[in-house]
Amino acid sequence: MIGKSVPRVDAYDKVTGRAKFTDDLVPANCLVAKIYHAKIGNGIVKSIDTSKAEALDGVVKVVTFKDVPNHCYPTPGHPWSVELAHQDVADRNILTGRVRYYGDDIAAVVAEDEITAQRALRLIEVEYEEYPVEIHPRKSMYGSKPPIHLDKKDNVLVRSNYFIGNVEEGLKESETVIKRSYKTPIVQHCHIENPISCAYMENGRIIVVTSTQIPHIVRRVIGQALGIPWGKIRVIKPYIGGGFGNKQDVLYEPLNAFLTTQVGGRPVKLDITREETFCNTRTRHSIEYDLTAGVDSEGHLLAKDMLAISNQGAYASHGHAIAANGLTAWRLQYACPNIKGEAYTVYTNTPVGGAMRGYGIPQVCFAIECFMDDIAKEIGMDPLEFRKKNLIRGYYEDAYLKPIAANTNGIFECLEKGAEYIHWEEKRKEYANQTGNIRRGVGMSLFSYKTGVWPISLEIAGARMTLNQDGSVGLMLGATEIGQGADTVFSQMTAEVLNMDISDIHIQTVQDTDVTPFDTGAYASRQSFVTGTVVKDCANLLKEKILAYAKELLPEETRKLRLDHGWIMAGKDPAISLGNLALESYYSLGNSSVITAEVSEQVKKNTIATGCCFAEVEVDIKLGKIKILHIINVHDSGKLINPKLAEMQVQGGMSMGMGYGLSEQLILDEKTGRPLNGTLLDYKLMTMIDTPDIKADFVELDDPIGPFGNKALGEPPAIPGAPAIRNAVFHATGVAFNENPLTPQRLIDGFIRAGLI
Amino acid sequence: MIGKSVPRVDAYDKVTGRAKFTDDLVPANCLVAKIYHAKIGNGIVKSIDTSKAEALDGVVKVVTFKDVPNHCYPTPGHPWSVELAHQDVADRNILTGRVRYYGDDIAAVVAEDEITAQRALRLIEVEYEEYPVEIHPRKSMYGSKPPIHLDKKDNVLVRSNYFIGNVEEGLKESETVIKRSYKTPIVQHCHIENPISCAYMENGRIIVVTSTQIPHIVRRVIGQALGIPWGKIRVIKPYIGGGFGNKQDVLYEPLNAFLTTQVGGRPVKLDITREETFCNTRTRHSIEYDLTAGVDSEGHLLAKDMLAISNQGAYASHGHAIAANGLTAWRLQYACPNIKGEAYTVYTNTPVGGAMRGYGIPQVCFAIECFMDDIAKEIGMDPLEFRKKNLIRGYYEDAYLKPIAANTNGIFECLEKGAEYIHWEEKRKEYANQTGNIRRGVGMSLFSYKTGVWPISLEIAGARMTLNQDGSVGLMLGATEIGQGADTVFSQMTAEVLNMDISDIHIQTVQDTDVTPFDTGAYASRQSFVTGTVVKDCANLLKEKILAYAKELLPEETRKLRLDHGWIMAGKDPAISLGNLALESYYSLGNSSVITAEVSEQVKKNTIATGCCFAEVEVDIKLGKIKILHIINVHDSGKLINPKLAEMQVQGGMSMGMGYGLSEQLILDEKTGRPLNGTLLDYKLMTMIDTPDIKADFVELDDPIGPFGNKALGEPPAIPGAPAIRNAVFHATGVAFNENPLTPQRLIDGFIRAGLI
């Protein structure tokens, strides 16, 4: 089963429209909620008048920031910590009268239908006192009056740093010292399904059906936001239309939970628009990097120094974890005796940065991998050769990430495959000295990525399995299918251990905090690794129980029993069918006890995935247009559970990577921080037309750490595309762009500055 | 917690309308199905033309008996048996062309809405070949041409019998021999919510949301009916509006499951009408009894002989189990050296008899307890004294029910309480010699009732508990809340073992065969006894795990740890709160593992509940009207888990018992077997106006067998009312009515025959 490209278990239902998403589960009589968003970028609400809205026929309830419980809460999808110091920043309320960014949530309307709710919003009258808006972290970090959050006088959410060796000494010893600055844009996840939830009450408890990656965390955060015991909340997660990290944040679930309590527990649907999703959910942080490196005469890195300044926006969300993850990556890949890293995460009056596929690594990878090419150029070395010279060989050993031990490192094989596909050697030479308007280039980049969050944070997962009467197995997990194929992969793992057909594994796709085991959810590319470990252990436990029961049914049998596709085999002979064994376990008058297995387990390990992207581009200098001719990602993600699904993961990630490199950015109004292109018409997501043939390849080393030799694959594909394209453009034109995306405007500006136009 | 009248956990939701029943869960786009019922009482479908129905706009699918899978299946809510001989009779198909009773299911329509479905039914054209209709079992048992079921030439479904001692010898030795015949009517359960289900497909599996008492059995029977593996079916049971045994049968779930497969897995709702519920679901069997008894000169029973003939109707359903249960009761209560029992269950062309509260005992109790009064009258003894003389003293020991050992028997205390309440001694004398039109009388009856079905059939239950982050406990069962208060009682039991507040027990009321543990469901008054045993064991297991984890958190602690309302106590001191322990178990970086417990267990025991009813009536002879002046049930059901709920159970059961005695009967047309009064207007259910003040009392012996000293209470309250009323009328008027209900027409006929009018 492992390594087989079985079709997705949810393919048929998703293609035919049978699959049920949150909106499919909303009851017919559901009330509809809409949010009143601030029309200024910074300030306070001086007065709010909801009387006209309340008087509108069909309006059931209007609540404002004055009505909500006074419990600050954090929103990121992290496991809770029992240590105060490790708890996430709790800096927001369900609604606010202190507007911190354009669109902040001031009030909400609950009405009998959507049109009435929308009309009621227009009847709410608000007077503001406005403060100056600051959208740039390099300015905001020195403070504002008043500060964005009162307890943060300088608007710096967190600063962190580390030293390895002595960077200043290292730079002094270096033959060449290079300094560059890079910047990445704010982008948005653009999952198909906007955040939507439906909340109601049952037996004094609040039930929230929601499109989330992290139902168990949503439960906890609602409890914190409303100030009620977590057990009084139940969160149900059906199929979701993508998340990419945005739904690894607790978005409007606490508001919706609060609203149902205000209307006697009636069901309330809160289905935000695409425009609200752009402005009011989460984005990928824009981060600015100042990098310095020293290399010796042979091109070895002797010292490297990173300063990162991350634009958090108005609320903490995942906050500094993203910039910090970039700081860690600065250590992991390229060997260097002297390393320094420093990062600031800074509140500004912009939409909030949160988790997005790659969790800080797409940003830092853009900076590092552009920098690698810029250094190579400076010292006159082939950039691939320069990287190979400096890459860590063998397994990653990191002072801060001790549990990573003796994992496989396939980066060199990846680079070989990528270089071969793109014809690196020939094309680097062929395109070295071009003239004219149309020029071609090849570029590459590489990355490394941790699998899950241990030891920085908790890794725990749970699984429960039941032997059905027909010998099929029910599988329940707290881990979530978010479109990535988790249900299929976990079914394969179970079938593998139990040596069964996958059609006999019935996975419960809906997570329900009341009934499915505890798992922190889909993020950090953790599930096939962390939850996979627990699935394996649980399946082994179930197998043991089945075989033990078989021994009772076959008391004379002395041969070793094993499972084989619906049979208990004694040696080479079928002894009893699994179906008949199951029937006995349910219905025997002598000895019946239904066979189930449940495991809840901490997974105290990690392993590092790597990979690279190679791209060949054609640049039309006068049009400022990049055409990608060829592009490949090669991944070392250990053993692939399902190669076809893995390839699809990479294809999707590469599309994101290309968008990040070429076209995607959320543009904010300087005066208000308001998104100027927060619609799918104006925000330039890659479409079918923009997308070249993209190639995914793998180096399948059997990693000794993962449950089936597997390592992270969920997020990595989105990481290396943007810098590879930038480096290919650099190769084609000689112009080093230090900020993505490479839009026509940015390219033409650059080419004019470089004298090409 | 045990013995406390805590409010029902579902009270608030049910009173406010928040509680979700099947119809509340039907998706907005659901198709609607309607059934085409036969318009004859016996025969075959010669031709069926559905073309006009199919052509109707909005009709999605029409299926007939020709389209359904050819798998005969059984419908009763019994555990499956792995032994062929113990499996239920499989004698029906999803639809049929062989019409066996008026209203048999020939075809079904699926349409976009209910009106279209209804219209389409009228466009179906059917030609029949008719056979003679026989609705009386005493005639049908000698056969029909053709037989109702081809493999049963004499229309006898099952005959069973037993002998203890030698009845003929016993009768010879008797001073007095009495023979009487009794008959009970067909009645219907009249639960508020008609059977309703919604079926759809997901990932190649069929999901059925249905109003049932037995979700796990519904799953199995759908599998049998459709001929697909049972694991491919998922049954979800929300709150239901009563069942009383009718929903202990698998009714239209197989048809609905089949229909969704015929419309591409789209959701299909099948919501039958009250008229269909009367005609096409199940009824309480009409049973005729011929009883003979011999008593000695002191009034001791020396021999007793029972012949029971049960009218099964057109399909087997629970079949002979009901008549057989009556045969068993014939042995259990009154000591007698020579006993004979023989029962026939006979197919006829009538609506189908199935399980109904009391499962054959209301019928046999009517016969036996009328007979006891008739014997007492014959030998000139007070009927209460006669009973006391013959009742088994101490615990019940039965050759056929060996596992019942040393249970408590509170019948004498019950009789004492009942007699005292009704002023038996005084009133038997006071009313002895009345004349005139208005006469009063007191009567009584008693019964015994097994708790669950062991050892006749399997008893198995499952429970799963989870310690939530706030120290509250999630409780999942396969046992079902059907209005009786099961959720409350199981929450109390859990709170008792864990020494917690009941508000910290969050029971999962919805059963879902994919996720909730296996349990055969609500019937046989089994749940608080059988499932209660497993709940106790599971809670003890959870407690052990909590305390074991507490020991790890408190390594220095040497005192004995115990749970006390949210705290782990070490001796007399609080050591750690359960909430903090739970947080550690979820989130500790050192040692986290969520604490859950699951138990699936056979319960190989039984115990017998007893009780009695005493009634005082006033009879208006000329009007043929009975007024109940006082009525009391006194129950020995062991320890009461929740006295208030117990009282409510008794009140509801007594209402059913009074209806059975006074007014309820489903009247069938002699020529067709068609119900003539199958509506709530014409079928005379007891209403508020008809109901006197009713009194419930208990004798609470601490039974050593039940998990908390408790015995059956679900069904018993419905049993003794009818014969007590009949015996009171006998006392008042001297007229012995041998058939219930005592309608004005039956009374006046009897009084005319007796010369009173």
From TrEMBL, chains A, B:
Ranges for domain Aldehyde oxidase/xanthine dehydrogenase a/b hammerhead: 16-132
Record-linked SMART domains: Ald_Xan_dh_C
KW Cell membrane (keyword) present: no
Keywords assigned by UniProt, alphabetized: Molybdenum, Oxidoreductase
Residue ranges the record marks as coiled coil: none
EC number: 1.17.1.4
Ribosomal protein recorded as keyword: no
GO molecular function: iron ion binding; xanthine dehydrogenase activity
Signal peptide, first to last residue: none
Pfam families: Ald_Xan_dh_C (PF01315), MoCoBD_1 (PF02738), MoCoBD_2 (PF20256)
GO CC annotation terms, alphabetical: xanthine dehydrogenase complex
UniProt xrefs under InterPro entries: Ald_Oxase/Xan_DH_a/b (IPR000674), Ald_Oxase/Xan_DH_a/b_sf (IPR036856), Ald_Oxase/xanthine_DH-like (IPR016208), AldOxase/xan_DH_MoCoBD1 (IPR008274), AldOxase/xan_DH_MoCoBD2 (IPR046867), AldOxase/xan_DH_Mopterin-bd_sf (IPR037165), XdhA_XDHase (IPR050028)
Enzyme class, broadest EC rank: oxidoreductase
NCBIfam families: PRK09970.1, XdhA_XDHase
The protein, known as: Xanthine dehydrogenase molybdenum-binding subunit
Species of the source: Blautia wexlerae
Lineage, highest ranks first: Bacteria, Bacillati, Bacillota, Clostridia, Lachnospirales
